[in-house]
Amino acid sequence: ILNTTVCIICHTGKYCSHPSLEIPLILINQTKTWREALSYCRENHVDLVSVHTEEIQHWVETAVYYASTANVWMGLRHTCTLNIWVWVKGEFICYQNWAPGNGTGVEDCSRGERTGAVQSGSKQWVSLPEDQRLNFIYQTQSTAC
């Protein structure tokens, strides 16, 4: 029996646990567009991960180590109309970990909405067109794995 409050489950079947987080994070090693990943999460689980703190970022970094794509979707979306980044549940960004040249200026919305991913290598966030096909991380509401 696992008596911690969070698990990061990766495609390898390994998990890393940390008792101070309240939600499990799960890496899905399938490639989907951002919208497909969001739909998958909402149909089967809860939502793409929202990174509100450095501590959650640390556990996202642990999960992306096992990814099969260079970037991994998280629940970050740019609204071209308002030129702001928000999490999928509507919260504004407080904690940030953008790679240089990403997320802090005017976004190129010519290919549609921009969405956020974390790089598997540098572990920094990048702004990408939502039609790229990447692995993704979701979070559940349950505290049991």
From TrEMBL:
<protein>
    <recommendedName>
        <fullName>C-type lectin domain-containing protein</fullName>
    </recommendedName>
</protein>
<dbReference type="Pfam" id="PF00059">
    <property type="entry name" value="Lectin_C"/>
</dbReference>
<dbReference type="InterPro" id="IPR016187">
    <property type="entry name" value="CTDL_fold"/>
</dbReference>
<dbReference type="InterPro" id="IPR001304">
    <property type="entry name" value="C-type_lectin-like"/>
</dbReference>
<feature type="domain" description="C-type lectin">
    <location>
        <begin position="12"/>
        <end position="139"/>
    </location>
</feature>
<dbReference type="InterPro" id="IPR016186">
    <property type="entry name" value="C-type_lectin-like/link_sf"/>
</dbReference>
